[in-house]
């Protein structure tokens, strides 16, 4: 849209609303990005932090000074440099004083400055006192040496530094977080000595790659001693791209069978962590834990104790579960977004960050040297004039005593500059002692030597680089410390499955004909004798453990899974399975199974087809279950039969027409799903509309007998008798004796 500006008779400006709002929003966005949320690569500070540190230095609150009320500092910051809310300013100040938040705190606090459990629990600023830490000298020590540019404060009455002359890359050392308009920053803290080594390496080898610098700076170093478990290749990728995430894990040790947590990840509250463990414990999801408590005190800032239920508990597996489900392991986003030396925000890799800072540091040192050289040259100039006056002291005194305006006369008589003449006139008489000439010449010699050294440094880039390297080395030796967060390769944490965290107790799952289910404690339950709803009765039962999965089979051949411990208690009449599962319309549940996952089962239909399947193949996700047994038209599902070791085991199949066929179970295929293979041939009777059906199936172990039930009569077949009925799978079989043409069931002995 064209920027149209119209002015009425009163001189008021008119412009389209879209133009005005767009400009206003862009102005606001740039303010938030540059003056609030993102740090500068030069000193690693946001404006409010920079103003707090400068105000404290102006108040004389050095590391050796006495503490002063924090309210005094906040008042100076707000009144002179940062006209915003006092609460936000004080919180920024508190953050720089918390050793558990800042890797290298900039403010030394006295009083309640919060705790790791609750960083926001700090006292009001009228109660706390503060001063700068020795580390802050790295940011403020060269401020008065002409190293930085200055700008007017918000009302133009004072000057404030645009940047602080950081002697080390504070941005990487302390890190920062911030959210601007359309962009954010998440920079983790690093170890001072490692970053210093990387800077020195880049100074000596300007063509070094990120991989080369990664050798010296292998990863972040947080304020807490938790282990950084992110693999080195992922850390390297973060430094190459400027984006990524890393993980930090708590440190624990085992004392007398108890787990002692001695270090937590960065910004993790021990109190909050204990609440997370308590929530799982109360929900009975940690049956392997007997007790847990917090024994942290002044001597041991972090000491969380977890007591296993017995010495048989796998402690590593337990901790892996806690790492995966609590803040004992935490992920941190990394976004190396900052304001570069050209004043524009961008994401940079490790080399770009260090190169930008070294460029700033080189310019800062050069300005410092030039500033000092100017001071030295000015002093030498004054000393030259003072020496001339001293050598002609009688004439100088005569001129001063006789002339109304001695300055121009001195300038003309001795060829002095205006500054030299003014300095001579301001010299005290006591400085005209006999030994003053020696002092002047001695100071001239010292300053001349310093001048030559400064000019050599400014004229030789190699000497300047060596000076910067020596200063970085000295600062690293003075302020550096050992790494706190060890870099350790660990396997990925994984939560325990529901079966592992559920107490293992014997239960009996009971299914009624109407599809109602319940779970009774123990295996000695008589499921037939339980109370059932009117018109309903017992159908099937399965004995299993409470941490196992119960499988239900419906009349369409679909299987469904439910955890046994989630089923309703048998103290009532249970609840309908259709409330938890979604079987096809018109389907009914025909069986419940509780065997282990590796158990083999025989699935078959009364149409004479079946196959072997493992129990784990019947487990289904979701309410709709999964199709397992394919049924021919009009066929019904027969009760599944658990199979022992297949060696020597035979399957007995009897048809409604009274034919019995026995063959090895191993003749049937093992399949995950399907119709299966033919078990017994069921021809259609002449003149009948329906086919013959399988009446019953039975699994006979090696050396076992088979009992055929028909009404009140039984017919027992010994192993030798079974051999008479053995044949090939899929055959018709042989007819049973008269009176057993209507078989009601089969039993094995």
Task: Explain what you see.
With 749 residues, the chain is of the alpha+beta class. Among the domains are: 45-165, Topoisomerase II, domain 5; 251-327, 2-Layer Sandwich (Gyrase A, domain 2), CATH 3.30.1360; 366-473, Topoisomerase, domain 3. The chain is built from 19 helices and 37 strands. The protein has a 4-stranded antiparallel beta sheet, with helices on one face. A hairpin with a 5-residue loop joins strand 17 and strand 18. Helix 7 runs antiparallel to helix 17, helix 12 (350-391) runs antiparallel to helix 16 and helix 16 crosses helix 17 (461-479). The protein is rod-shaped. The mean pLDDT is 90.
Which labels suit this protein?
single chain; Gyrase A, domain 2; four-stranded antiparallel β-sheet; 749 residues; Topoisomerase II, domain 5; alpha+beta; 37 strands; Topoisomerase, domain 3
- Give the overall average pLDDT: 90
CATH class of the domain at 45-165: Alpha Beta
CATH architecture of the domain at 45-165: Alpha-Beta Complex
What's the CATH topology label of the domain at 45-165? Topoisomerase II, domain 5
Helix content: 25-40%
What share of the residues does DSSP label as strand, in percent?
15-25%
Concise structural overview:
The chain is α+β, with helices and mostly antiparallel strands. The longest helix has 42 residues, at 350-391.
Chart the SSEs and their pairings.
Elements lengths: L5 E2 L5 E2 L2 H21 L9 H12 L9 E2 H12 L4 H10 L11 E4 L18 E4 L4 H4 L9 E3 L6 E3 L8 H5 L1 E4 L4 E4 L4 H13 L5 H7 L10 E2 L3 H10 L1 E7 L1 E5 L2 E6 L6 H13 L6 E6 L9 E5 L6 H11 L3 E7 L1 E3 L5 E3 L2 H42 L1 H10 L3 H9 L3 H9 L9 H24 L1 H19 L18 H4 L4 E7 L3 E6 L16 E8 L3 E6 L3 E6 L11 E2 L12 E5 L6 E5 L4 E6 L11 E2 L13 E3 L6 E6 L3 E6 L12 E2 L15 E7 L5 E5 L2 E5 L1 H7 L8 E2 L9 E4 L1
Antiparallel strand pairs: 1-2, 3-5, 4-5, 6-7, 8-9, 10-11, 11-16, 12-13, 13-15, 14-15, 17-18, 19-20, 19-21, 20-24, 22-23, 22-25, 23-28, 26-27, 26-29, 27-32, 30-31, 30-33, 31-36, 34-35, 34-37
Helix pairs in contact: 2-3, 3-4, 7-8, 7-12, 7-17, 12-15, 12-16, 13-14, 14-15, 16-17
């Amino acid at each position: 849209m064209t920027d149209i500006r119209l002015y009425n008779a009163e001189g008021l400006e008119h412009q389209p609303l879209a133009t005005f709002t767009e400009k206003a929003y862009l102005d606001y966005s740039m303010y938030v990005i540059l003056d609030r949320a993102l740090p500068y690569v030069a000193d690693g500070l946001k404006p409010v932090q920079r103003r707090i540190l400068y105000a404290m230095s102006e108040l004389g609150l050095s590391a050796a000074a006495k503490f002063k009320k924090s309210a005094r500092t906040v008042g100076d910051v707000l009144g002179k440099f940062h006209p915003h809310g006092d609460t936000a300013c004080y919180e920024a100040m508190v953050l720089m004083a918390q050793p558990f938040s800042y890797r290298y705190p900039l403010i030394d606090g006295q009083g309640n400055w919060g705790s790791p459990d609750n960083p926001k629990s700090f006292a009001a600023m009228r109660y706390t006192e503060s001063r700068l830490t020795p580390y802050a000298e790295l940011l403020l020590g060269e401020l008065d040496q002409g190293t930085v540019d200055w700008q007017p404060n918000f009302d133009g009455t004072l000057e404030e530094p645009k940047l602080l002359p950081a002697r080390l890359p504070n941005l990487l050392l302390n890190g920062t977080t911030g959210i601007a308009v359309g962009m954010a920053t998440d920079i983790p803290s690093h170890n001072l000595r490692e970053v210093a080594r990387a800077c020195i390496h880049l100074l000596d080898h300007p063509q070094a790659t990120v991989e080369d610098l990664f050798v010296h700076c292998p990863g972040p170093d947080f304020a807490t001693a938790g282990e950084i478990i992110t693999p080195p290749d992922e850390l390297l990728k973060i430094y190459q791209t400027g984006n990524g995430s890393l993980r930090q894990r708590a440190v624990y040790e085992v004392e007398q069978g108890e787990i002692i947590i001695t270090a937590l990840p960065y910004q993790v509250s021990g109190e909050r962590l204990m609440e997370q463990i308590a929530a799982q414990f109360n929900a009975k999801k940690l049956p392997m834990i007997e007790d847990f408590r917090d024994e942290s005190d002044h001597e041991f800032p972090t000491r969380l104790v977890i007591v296993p239920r017995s010495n048989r508990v796998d402690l590593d597996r337990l901790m892996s579960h806690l790492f995966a489900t609590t803040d004992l392991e935490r992920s941190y986003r990394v976004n190396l977004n900052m304001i570069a030396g050209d004043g524009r925000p961008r994401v940079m890799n490790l080399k770009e960050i260090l190169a930008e800072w070294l460029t700033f540091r080189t310019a800062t040192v050069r300005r410092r040297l030039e500033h000092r050289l100017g001071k030295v040259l000015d002093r030498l100039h004054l000393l030259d004039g003072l020496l001339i006056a001293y050598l002609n002291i009688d004439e100088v005194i005569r001129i001063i005593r006789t002339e109304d305006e001695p300055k121009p006369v001195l300038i003309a008589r001795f060829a002095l500059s205006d500054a030299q003449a003014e300095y001579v006139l301001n010299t005290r008489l006591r400085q005209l002692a006999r030994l003053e000439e020696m002092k002047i010449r001695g100071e001239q010699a010292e300053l001349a030597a310093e001048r030559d050294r400064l000019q050599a440094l400014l004229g030789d880039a190699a000497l300047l680089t060596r000076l910067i390297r020596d200063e970085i080395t000295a600062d690293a030796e003075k302020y550096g410390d050992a790494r706190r967060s060890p870099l350790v390769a660990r396997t990925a944490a994984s939560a325990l499955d529901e079966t592992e965290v559920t107490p293992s107790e014997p239960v009996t799952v009971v299914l009624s004909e109407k599809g109602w289910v319940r779970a009774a404690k123990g295996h000695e339950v008589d499921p037939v004798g339980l109370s059932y709803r009117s018109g309903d009765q017992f159908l099937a039962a399965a004995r299993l453990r409470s941490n196992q999965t119960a499988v239900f089979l419906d009349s369409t051949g679909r299987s469904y899974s439910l955890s046994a411990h989630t089923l309703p208690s048998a103290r009532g009449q249970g609840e309908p399975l259709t409330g938890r599962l979604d079987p096809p319309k018109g389907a009914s549940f025909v069986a419940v199974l509780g065997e282990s996952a590796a158990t083999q089962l025989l699935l078959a239909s009364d149409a004479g087809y079946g196959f072997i399947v493992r129990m784990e193949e019947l487990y289904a996700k979701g309410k709709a279950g999964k199709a397992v047994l394919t049924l021919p038209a009009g066929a019904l599902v027969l009760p599944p039969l658990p199979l022992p070791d297949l060696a020597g085991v035979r399957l007995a199949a009897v048809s409604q027409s009274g034919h019995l066929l026995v063959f090895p179970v191993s003749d049937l295929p093992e399949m995950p799903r399907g119709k299966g293979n033919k078990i017994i041939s069921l021809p259609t009777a002449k003149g009948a509309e329906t086919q013959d059906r399988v009446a019953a199936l039975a699994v006979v172990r090696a050396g076992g007998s088979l009992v055929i039930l028909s009404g009140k009569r039984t017919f027992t077949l010994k192993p030798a008798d079974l051999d008479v009925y053995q044949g090939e799978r899929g055959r018709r079989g042989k007819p049973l004796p008269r009176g057993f043409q209507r078989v009601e069931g089969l039993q094995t002995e």
